[in-house]
Specification:
CATH architecture of the largest domain: 3-Layer(aba) Sandwich
CATH superfamily of the largest domain: HUPs
CATH class of the largest domain: Alpha Beta
CATH topology of the largest domain: Rossmann fold
Radius of gyration: 22 Å
Shape: elongated
Strand content: 15-25%
Low-confidence stretches: 131-138, 259-267
Structural class: alpha/beta
Oligomer: single chain
Number of domains: 2
Number of helices: 8
Number of strands: 10
Amino acid sequence: MSKTNVIACIDGTEVSTAVCDYAAWSSLRLGATLMLLHILDKSVYPVQSNLSGNIGLGSRETLLRELADLDERRGRLALEQGRILLETARQRALADGVSAPVMHQRHGDLLESLQAIEQDTRLLVLGKHDENLGAHVGSRLETLVRSLHRPMLVCPPTYRKPERVMIAFDGSQTTRKAVDMVAGSPLFRGLPCHVVLVGPGDSASREQLDWARQALASAGFAVTAVLRQGDVEKTLCDYRGEENIDIIVMGAYGHSVIRRFLVGSTTTAVIRNAQTPVLLLR
């Protein structure tokens, strides 16, 4: 099955609007179908629970029926709420210029649902939730990145049309693959591209950086290649602010200095401090 869909995960929080906009922009750039996905998490919306085994409830038929009816009503309301969210997102995507966005609603947890459609996913667009960043984006995002093998764009709550892109590069196999993916994709074509390597100013680093510059220039990009020293996370975030970068591209799980802040709790710090979308490439 061809990987044709840009998947926008719509959950009804304030970040869903930006997710929809970034996903619409991506689908138009890639020429891919936009799928608006809403997941009814079974842990949040239980439907028709079997309560007959509860101690003390077995003989209370009326109460059991009322509880079962309550579960059923909650399920119906959750379905309707999801349909409204999807329709609102569809109207927004149409306004963004997407001709035929697809709406899709599933029961289950997030990872299982995404795995079920992974083979037909070209790009996954998710929102970050600052109020629950430690648990929601930290552990959940790490699980998704480890479990799925598709590019993921993690978005802040506010959309800004991408005009400049930055690749966090360190010469590792993972980040070289990220350069190749950017060079070969229409997603950022025509946008100025900054390649930033944070490391020692030795000849090996300069050779790696020159390789990245040439690879992107050969693909038609206007490239700014920069070598800096200092703390990796702070240096990248400072450069983003200085150059008004709109999207940061990183290779996920490389065996390098960048790897240490792409796993575990440090993922949270990078995404929070970036203040822009972060595209994680496998």
